[in-house]
FAD:protein FMN transferase (Candidatus Seongchinamella marina), 298 residues
Amino acid sequence: MMHRKRIHCFGSSCQLTIDTLPGEADALVSIATAELSRLEHKFSAFNADSLISKINQSAGTGCYTALDPEALSLFDFVTALWEESSHIFDPTTRLLLNCYDDDGRLKATDSQVKAMLHLVGWSQLELTHQGALLPQKGMLLDLNSCIRPYAIDSVRRKLIKEGIENAMIEMAQDAVTIGKQFDGANWLLGLRHPFGNRTAINRIKLNGKGFAMRGDFERRTRFNDENFGRGLSPIDGYPIPGMLSVSVVADSCLEACGASSVARLKTEKAAINWLENLGLPWMAIDRELRCHGPLAPK
């Protein structure tokens, strides 16, 4: 029997769909909820007691925040994305969001943007055996875009350990599945097309795989009379002239997150070449609202 449950975490709604016996559903939901809560409490930048918040609060004090093996592996993952993106993927750019309004329009002056850039740069983060340290007061980290896919991958692992063979976990722009649906039907995920009716979508199969979309063509902003996504450059503080959104299917949600995050920050031509070389199913929407990739509507 299929059971559905919505769980609020990481400032978003997470939907859990599980095929299990009626008497087992509550226990499985509790396992999933506990894991999501654990990771939110541990890593969310919006939780004042989280490890990330402690690093932010200690910025400029010279005090290191200890990292356990789980945290170290996540920092290693982020560093790998930073390197693969030629240092454009940078969680310290959260600070630059203060320069823009809710619609993505620049509200700061050029000099104010430039002044903030000295507080931006993943390369400034010190990672040693003592832990993590941001050297300057005012620097900020936000790893939520990587923690969310890690969290639902972790829930999938726990459900598999409990013997679950059919499940889907969705949160924000991320999703991961176990097997197919209980009746053999495919898990289907909708991708919105940038033209035409808002309900027109391309549906993709997501059986035993992870999915991530980074960027959002519907929340694009205009900058110097051009379309841009909300990604900000750690180099100059302005919107990055890359794809408006990139969607990827991979073996895990975190792998899909890594691929889509890096591709979105490359130039459009470089992103297409890079994604094609990865060999994963993908769809990208460029700044002219054209769709690219094997998952694009035909």
Summary: The domain at 52-141 is CATH 1.10.3980.10 (T-fold). Helices lie at 25-43, 51-57, 69-84, 110-116, 144-161, 253-264, 268-278.
